[in-house]
Amino acid sequence: xxxxxxxxxxxxxxxxxxxxxxxxxxxxxxxxxxxxxxxxxxxxxxxxxxxxxxxxxxxxxxxxxxxxxxxxxx
Amino acid sequence: xxxxxxxxxxxxxxxxxxxxxxxxxxxxxxxxxxxxxxxxxxxxxxxxxxxxxxxxxxxxxxxxxxxxxxxxxxxxxxxxxxxxxxxxxxxxxxxxxxxxxxxxxxxxxxxxxxxxxxxxxxxxxxxxxxxxxxxxxxxxxxxxxxxxxxxxxxxxxxxxxxxxxxxxxxxxxxxxxxxxxxxxxxxxxxxxxxxxxxxxxxxxxxxxxxxxxxxxxxxxxxxxxxxxxxxxxxxxxxxxxxxxxxxxxxxxxxxxxxxxxxxxxxxxxxxxxxxxxxxxxxxxxxxxxxxxxxxxxxxxxxxxxxxxxxxxxxxx
Lengths: 74, 316
Ligand code: HEM
Ligand code: SF4
Ligand code: SF4
Ligand code: SF4
Hints:
Oligomer: heterodimer
Largest sheet of chain B: 5 strands, mixed
Largest interface: A-B, 13 and 11 residues
Distance between the termini of chain B: 56 Å
CATH topology of chain A: Translation Initiation Factor IF3
Number of helices of chain B: 9
Largest sheet of chain A: 4 strands, mixed
CATH topology of the largest domain in chain B: Sulfite Reductase Hemoprotein, domain 1
Structural class of chain B: alpha+beta
Bound molecules: protoporphyrin IX containing FE, iron/sulfur cluster
Number of domains of chain A: 1
């Protein structure tokens, strides 16, 4: 599975980067993102869901979060 | 009698404030909720350019004030602003232009349509004489309360009651972590547990949930009454929760009627001071008669902020 590390990237750059990464992914593919705790994890998952992707999981690891999602259609 | 040069009716409504200089006035424009169309803004700029001194003042209550207007130009200023499009605001013992933040239209935090409420109150209650003192109303879209609703005579704050759909929850724990009030914790089944008594209806859980498992079961305004700023500040206290947007005008009118009646003969006194004198029970019970499903069981008097010397306990 493709992992995209967005740790150390602040809002809203992290969301825009996630969006750009997802453009190169096939619909239905599962991808994971690493997100910092705080504002990034509060904002990015919800914004990606609003873009039509399916959130499969969000789990805390040591000091950061792993968001798993399936790329949605147009 | 000298020939009358200006239409005195324009002065009566207030909104023309005498400046220091000879013959000069400030003209306070009516901008409910701080919303201003760009067309109106250019019109105002044109009038200010022609009759003012090259600048305007953005007032703390969201008005645009034209500065250095000669009283001989009043009629021209009012006419050129266009009486329908840009009205002059009020001063004195009246219901003032309501203020509001952006609310829910484009602001990610907004829970209710504060702009709509501000416009409605402006249309229906603006300028109503109180008989006693000024009367200020404010709308905040959520409990962040950026526009400081609680220091108004009546302050409204958007609120939502959160409801969980446990099947939609993926147990990420974000809602519990985001709730600053300690109203949410993660239960043994790894789903959030809601403690209603601690909730302040901010909706952060709804906003943060990545799957939409939280939604708003009820929505409306939390209402605080009796606030003011100035030399002797008071912070308004809680009288009602989840007042529907469509009953806001009626709610204010009920508070206003109580104020008009209870301050009879008391002179220039603000609502908060009348509440302190009469006791909050009187206003709360009056409101309960009209809004039984929203009025809280009990409240407290407006809260005094000691901002003047000597501070309590100090001897000067
Ligand atoms: C993500 C969080 C926040 C957002 C998006 C936000 C947004 C805004 C906006 C849009 C305004 C302008 C409102 C208007 O005049 O129409 C504002 C003003 C204000 N905000 Fe916030 N705000 C946030 C958090 C906070 C917090 C946490 C506080 C206080 C602890 C706060 C205090 C204020 C105050 C006092 C003003 C008025 C400033 C003034 O009168 O000059 N805000 N905020
Ligand atoms: S009170 Fe709430 S809705 Fe209004 S500007 Fe502040 S954060 Fe936004
Ligand atoms: S609405 Fe606000 S205070 Fe209430 S549970 Fe949700 S986050 Fe906590
Ligand atoms: S934020 Fe949503 S998905 Fe995460 S624990 Fe809370 S209710 Fe469940």
